[in-house]
Amino acid sequence: MDKIVIKGGHPLFGTVKISGSKNSSLPIITSTLLTDNVLSLHNVPNLSDIRTLHKILASLGVKVSQKSLHTWEYQADTINSFTAAYDLVKTMRASFLVLGPLLTRFGECKVALPGGCAIGVRPVNFHLEALSLMGADIEIKDGYVYASTKSKRLKGAEITFSRVSVGATENTLMAATLAEGKTIIHNAAMEPEIDDLANCLVSMGADITGIGSNCLTINGVDSLHGATHSIIPDRIESITYAIAAAITRGRIDIIDTRVEHITSVIEVLKAMGVDIKEITGGFSCSGEGNNIKGIDIVTSPYPGFPTDAQAQIMALMLTAKGASNINETIFENRFMHVPEMQRMNGDIILTDAFSVKVMGSSELHGAPVMASDLRASAGLILAALAAKGESIIDRVYHLDRGYEDIETKLSSCGADIYRYKDTPKE
Ligand code: UD1
């Protein structure tokens, strides 16, 4: 397993270009299953999660071809399997997003239950309940979801999610595009990645209104066609580099990003004393002057503070003056990075499964630490950039799922970072 070695304690200065969004790319790539024409996508990040999805699509018979580093073409005109196997689905929960498109276009599919993961139980009941309301017969057997429709097509339905779910909104939205009649999704997730998916579906011929709101109305159409679409910038990557500037008390210009997608985080960073200015194509973020102070945050669905930025802001809070509190409301086990940050001399009190108190003014020291999930890895990288001495971050395959070229991007800003390669790259 690769490790990342960081000698921290230096301010970072430079410019970072943000890659395409992982969480947009995954559902949008999956939407190729809705048409037999070519879907051409630009700005797809070069990440292991994308390669995993490509393997799943190829196993179904989708033609996947790379046109340049970030441009891919997909064509699902020769689907010869309706089964997403456990071996592939277990490595990435977002693979479950093949369920809605396969079912709505072909009337049957078998998709492995993704199971739990490091950050929580993560059930899929909302996905299944919504598809059942649309007329799907669903059976769970031997770790697989068997879904089929008696009539040829799913039927439009009125669906109200009891809590906001990004994945369930995406699966339902994709399924509804080809269903017979109207589907209304109440309490839909409003993440920018949902808008990106909906906009791509509209360019493929879908009839969707309410994009950008928490109520999506979809009038099903008989078929969708090919399209060309460019993936939005990765907002969590933007936040991570903004915090890299703040935590090292340096300044980084973050470009090729969309500031309007990270308003809640920018507000928190400004309230902590981080200096943020809009620049062409993005923003400039600075922690110079060492005036960072503690704050209390609560994670919540968009437009609230994203759970995917919780580990990173925790790292910054460790270096702030005064205490901070974090209340994590999305996942019940998302503090796996706490003991690792404590190993780096971070002063954090775990209050319960959903809340921590970060004492601040911690003098972080480098240490060997272990990444437990994607965003926890990012939090540890940030803490290591601020810590005096050497940190060795193990299990960085988690990081490779969601951060393109992180060593190159950070070292271009002056970070002392290198990857210790333990095994040949895939
Ligand atoms: C997506 C993101 C992930 C992010 C999360 C929350 C992708 C690929 N992943 O994950 O990075 O952390 O949104 O912003 O886009 N839930 C249920 N039943 C369900 C579905 C969800 O109880 O059927 C619960 C989950 O356990 C969780 C909450 O709802 O507590 C929100 O989960 P959800 O929004 O579905 O997360 P994902 O789509 O898996």
Helix-strand makeup class: alpha/beta
Widest beta sheet: strand line-up: 22-23-1-24
Total helical elements: 14
CA(first)-CA(last) distance: 12 Å
Most strands sheet: 4 strands, mixed
Give unreliable regions as ranges: none
The whole-number mean of residue pLDDT values reads: 95
* Percentage of residues in helical conformation: 25-40%
Estimated share of beta-strand residues? 25-35%
Shape: elongated
Distinct ligand kinds: uridine-diphosphate-N-acetylglucosamine
| Count of strand segments | 24
The whole-angstrom Rg is 21 Å
What does this protein look like?
- The chain has 426 residues and is α/β, with parallel strands linked by helices.
- Helices cover 30% and strands 26% of the residues.
- It contains 14 helices and 24 strands.
- The strands form six sheets. Strands 22-23-1-24 form a four-stranded mixed beta sheet. The protein has a four-stranded mixed beta sheet with strand order 2-15-17-16. The chain has a four-stranded mixed beta sheet with strand order 4-5-3-14, with helices on one face.
- A hairpin with a 2-residue loop joins strand 8 and strand 9 (144-149).
- The protein starts with a strand and ends in a 6-residue tail after the last strand.
- The structure holds uridine-diphosphate-N-acetylglucosamine.
